[in-house]
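dude i think i finally got it to work??
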Amino acid sequence: MKSDSIAFGVAGIAFGLIAGWIIGTQQAKPSQPVSQPTTSSSSAPSDSSTTRAAIVDEAKVSALKSIAEKEPTNAKPRIELGNLYFDAERYDDAIMWYEQAVKLAPNDVNLSTDLGVCYYYTNQPDKALARFDASLKIDPKHAKTLLNLGIVRAFGKQDLAGATKAWEQVIAIDPNSPEGQAAKRALETLKSAHGAGEPKPGA
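look at this
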């Protein structure tokens, strides 16, 4: 999916950009490796001031819905529909299709985490955390899931200790990866802003 920053209102703009990039770049084609932050459009993280919600291609949506109706056990068109709606920031619609897809492809860690991200965007942090837990049962070392877990703990639950633990796990897994570097920046920012007050969920 696209890179998408969120203003989190804690530790200044820098941490908001880090957190927004981590969540926004989570979306990836399930068939792609997860060793690096990739998006379905292969775009690099970009400045939040230039990112915009994509416009849903209704013709493509119609075609995918037709395939989904004809192939009730096929997760792929449902994942693609979820991705289209995610890009358009229509998270409730994305959730509907991702939930269907998860039932058909329960071991797809990217899909599972994408659904969790949508739950977070719709102010359902507990459901997001439960979905990330499910993702980590599939792959306990899935870096993007751990990064997103930290964000939701910090901004959805005001649990800085839990966020710290998740980000430390990312660093322990692969400190030199983009995920590891982002986790380091997040932890450094939290430490430098420990007196800045409680973080708040993203809008």
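Confidence is low (pLDDT under 50) at residues 2-14, 25-50, 196-203.
im so relieved honestly
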